[in-house]
Amino acid sequence: MTAASTARTDALRALTIPRHLLPADGRFGSGPSRIRAEQMESLRSVSATVLGTSHRQAPVKDLVARVRSGLSELFALPEGYEVVLGNGGSTAFWDVAVFGLIEKRSQHLVLGEFSQKFASESAGAPHLAEPEVLRANPGEVPQAVASAEVDAYAWPHNETSTGVMIPVARPDGAGDGQLVLVDATSVAGAASVDITQTDAYYFAPQKAFASDGGLWLSVLSPAAIERAERLGQDSSRWIPSFLSLTSAIDNSRKDQTLNTPAVATLVLLAEQIDWILAQGGLAWADERTRTTSGMLQSWAERREEITPFVADPAARSQVVTTLDVDESIDATAITSLLRAHGVVDIEPYRKLGRNQLRIATFPAVDVEDVASLIEVLDHVLDSTADA
Asked: Pfam families given for it (predicted)?
């Protein structure tokens, strides 16, 4: 570290940000994400009738039905597609898919930490063949390639660790017997999607849906349901009951989960789905997140100290913006300063190991708060430029 950069770091640590510049809500985390006050009020209002009651009884089952019907409307589900949910987050769904959706071999696009994890689960499964893995450097987009050797293609719609989005479309040349499994954990409910291009569009609710973890949800196609039922009846294939997709399908049709769910998570999720629908649905959420992420990308383009990590504008996420900070400036000093002033969770993904800011713009993040964050960052950089 040079003397100049040391001096700037010291200046950052000593700086005070004027209160009037700060966002009304300083939570910009990539997950768990900010929860709206109205969601918390809804949680309080049902505390005596839903929380602490049996999940096999009408109040909680009605809540699950509300979530399932709301998602069906939000994603405009075609006939035969179903909303299925189960205990555990998206990490659990990777294992559910390894047991109940991938028949023999899968193809994985790996472009960051989370896409790598699903590929590793498939590679470690003793009943599956070694998966085809197509890699790209972090910040870049690999392309799925039709292969007669696989029965499932898997990739993330949005790679949270790097801020890359991949289009959701069946690979050219993919056959009828090949499923498309898309990890939508950090972007479901925030970006438009043609659900017919997928067979399992799965996610957890702690990102765009502004809830808590511990639950997975998936929109399943008729082909995915048929695959799950067939594999579930295969006596030579051992499937743990907790990871049984057929069990999750059966329970979801009864508006329940196999084991006791976190009911508060369901309440927050249902409220957020209803709110997004009331604002204009997925088209509204898509426009809002494009606007807020676009503000950050435009800011980066006018600041010589800041560079978008994802070089291709078409590949940049509309919900997780990753920005490289010039090496002469300690990004951790910036994030620490902002955290001390109530602007939190804009640190980079830890395993990426870059001098970087990572800022989430899920639907609950107001345009005004993003504008204020940019003003704060301008103030911080300008105030310490001559240190």
From this structure: Aminotran_5
Where do runs of H (alpha helix) occur along 200-344? Answer: 222-232, 245-253, 263-279, 281-302, 331-340
Alpha-carbon gap, residue 199 to 66, rounded angstroms = 22
What is the token pair recorded at 108? 């994985």
* 344 burial type by CB count under 10 A (0-12 exposed, 13-18 middle, 19+ buried): middle
Encode pLDDT of 265-287 as tens digits. Answer: 999 999 999 999 999 999 999 99
Task: Tell me the β-bridge partners of 219.
Answer: 83, 201
The CATH number of the domain covering residues in 52-278: 3.40.640.10
What pLDDT sits at residue 1?
63
Region at 106 (left for phi over 0; alpha for psi -120 to 50; beta for the rest) = beta
**Averaged over 23-33, what is the pLDDT?**
96
CATH number of 3-36+280-383: 3.90.1150.10
What pLDDT was estimated at residue 271? 97
Residue type at 80?
G
| Structural domain boundaries in the chain | 3-36+280-383, 52-278
What is the structure's pLDDT at 88? 93
Residue 32: cis peptide before it, omega within 30 degrees of 0: yes
Q: So what's the pLDDT on residue 47?
A: 84
